[in-house]
Write a structure and sequence with these properties.
The protein has nine helices and seven strands. By secondary structure, the chain is of the alpha/beta class. The chain starts with a helix and ends with a strand. Strands 3-2-1-4-5-7-6 form a seven-stranded mixed beta sheet, sandwiched between helices. The structure holds S-adenosylmethionine.
Length: about 260
């Protein structure tokens, strides 16, 4: 049946995602730099700066949930920003990911940076579609960076984000998107479909996982379509719903829970 087919396809996708991220966990940070020429760092810096994490206007520390947090790139930037810009050493981040291998790399980094002895960061195995251990209306800021396109049932992840956020809480997503400049798109398509799998093979010894990553970018909805999905999940879009970075190579979508 149609539904039978869907289920098989979905479980294949979930299995594939787990396999991909277990095999890339140890080389993930190096590969990110190599594939994006380090630009992912600038996007992530901008993403975090634009959210200005730290004490909210009522003076309370924030509860932040970074979903598909992987090795903690966003979580560490959040804590750093809260401390340096907002003099806030109490705001805390839960780094949640479906893959324990990715989280373990994050824990290593937390240990190196002296965060493990504080209660400012915690690592949790969680599926974005359910977020079982996160109570309703408990989070001030939900982020998901380069994670949503890997989620099998994206509307379920958006519903879970809506459930865990407090009223007035912010949903923010950073993800690859559709390049909006035609000549750049031609180069980008060639680069991503030939160079990235080759780099995966040479640097990480894993061509297939990087082939999957490239395909998952191609299959992700357009900027407008995803902004519409965020709205349909019950959020108020911020501005037109998205902001393009580097001619749409990546975009940021933001929504507020009414
Ligand atoms: N947020 C990090 C960053 O920006 O560098 C990591 C992004 S990495 C490309 C994607 C992450 O999504 C992986 O760590 C993977 O395990 C996680 N992931 C995939 N499907 C997930 C799901 N359903 N729930 C939670 N995490 C998921």
């Amino acid at each position: 049946t149609h539904f039978g087919f869907q289920t098989v396809k979905e479980s294949l996708k979930a299995g594939k995602v787990a396999e991909v991220f277990s095999s890339v966990a140890s080389s993930y940070d190096v590969m990110n730099d190599a594939m994006s020429f380090g630009i992912h760092r600038l996007w992530k810096d901008y993403f975090v700066r634009s959210l200005n994490p730290g004490r909210n206007p009522g003076g309370q520390p924030m509860s932040i949930l970074d979903v598909a947090g992987g090795t903690g790139d966003i979580a560490f930037r959040m804590l750093d920003h809260a401390e340096k810009i907002n003099a806030d050493r109490e705001t805390s981040v839960i780094c949640a990911d479906i893959n324990a291998d990715m989280l373990r790399e994050g824990e290593k980094r937390a240990l190196e940076q002296g965060y493990m002895s504080t209660n400012r960061i915690s690592f949790r195995v969680e599926n974005a579609e359910t977020l079982d251990s996160v109570p309703d209306n408990s989070i001030d800021l939900y982020t998901i960076s380069f994670g949503i396109r890997n989620v099998t049932r994206i509307p379920m992840a958006l519903a879970a984000a809506h459930r865990v956020l407090k009223p007035g809480g912010v949903f923010a997503c950073l993800e690859f998107s559709k390049v909006s400049l035609a000549p750049l798109d031609t180069i980008y398509q060639q680069y991503s479909f030939s160079v990235i799998p080759l780099m995966g093979q040479l640097i990480a010894g894993d061509r297939d996982s990087y082939q999957y990553l490239v395909e998952s970018i191609k299959n992700f909805p357009s900027q407008e379509q995803f902004a519409q999905m965020v709205k349909e999940a019950g959020f108020m879009n911020v501005g037109k719903g998205y902001e393009e970075l580097t001619f749409g190579v990546a975009s940021i979508w933001k929504g507020v829970k009414p």
